[in-house]
Amino acid sequence: MSGINVSFSHCGFVKMGIDDSSLVTTSVKDEDPFIAGQRKGAAALGDAQNKTLTGPDWAPEFNRDLDGLILISGESHASIFKEKVKIEEIFGVHTEHPSIHEIICIRGDVRPGDEDGHEHFGFLDGISNPTIIGFDKTDNPGPAPVNPGVIVTGYDGDADKDKRAPWAVDGSFLAFRYLFQNVPEFNEYLQKNPIIRDGLTPEEGSELLGARMVGRWKSGAPIDITPFKDDPSLGTDPSRNNDFDFSGDVNSQVRCPFAAHVRKTNPRHDLQADFSSKRMMRRGIQFGPEVTQKEREEGRTHHGRGLLFACYQTSIANGFAFVQTAWANEVKFPPKEQEPGLDPIIGQGYRAMSGLNPDHPEDVRQLPDFVVPRGGEYFFSPSLKALKETLATGA
Ligand code: N7H
Q: Ligand 1 centroid to 258 CA: how many Å?
């Protein structure tokens, strides 16, 4: 079993001689992030800059133009490798005249055993994604369903649906980010700073601190529903694990910090205006090995690991780039009397937030970097029809 997705960056389309002007987001005042490319927009995303490179402090493979991305997924390394060889043959990769060059190949993996479905910090992921009108069952409690055009071009909800070229419908923009996670450091931070509270052991205080950074327990249970004690059966129950909207906690941070990762990236009841254009479909996977005993003992990372973050939307400017810059990195978001601070997981900038301690939510705590961006690019993932009839023929 395997699946292949092919997508192109703006420079890839230019190189192929394809006019991609109908992919520009009309509502963007400044430069469209897809057209500019992620490297150019990296400083605005908050990524650390490397003075000698005069660009972001990224892995060298990303500090250059990348024309496309081929995603190969499958149930085993063997079947994925087989597909990779097939693709290389099609493009003559190991011949004298290859038509594509491999710049970087990154292997993603689900985590082993009980950690399957959990990202490297240990939290269950992939719980909350937009429910799409016309595709999904819409009667599960949770955030309001969105129009299909929020994710797929050419449909209601795609603000530019009427101007898309015929080949540009039925596609989606892919924001890819190469995000390293300092897992031993994260664990050490939790262990050294447990929330002190009646009835909690230091271990439980550390678990609570992590849960308040994310907005969910490692099991997936939302802290807005169960603020001080994990409820693993709730975490994995799709009929209940998205049934919250922070409305019981509008102006206090007792149940959930305003800056908790899932509150920053999907503020639910905190925003009254329709923000469906900011929703995105997340489809990332982990990379890198499990934490070794040495790393655990030292609380220091020796082997790179993290998330191959991937999310789909019909506008990078309104989706990923907006959520990272205007929400996660914005100290005043969501707008509250008490300043929320940065998203403790992905926020880039002066990393401080309030609300971590439920009994003293006004305390502002400065946090080390837990997630370090080391690359990425914006791509457009076209439909099969577009690939076959337009892009493969250069028409
Ligand atoms: Fe996030 N994490 O483990 O802490 N994320 N995320 N994310 N994220 C979510 O609800 C994580 C990143 C969103 O609808 C969960 O499915 C990590 C970026 C959005 O309630 C967990 C990294 C961006 C949601 C994590 C990372 C987002 C979400 C809970 C980086 C966009 C849904 C599981 C290494 C700019 C919110 C779930 C909702 C959920 C984690 C990156 C966005 C556990 C470790 C870069 C929209």
A: 15
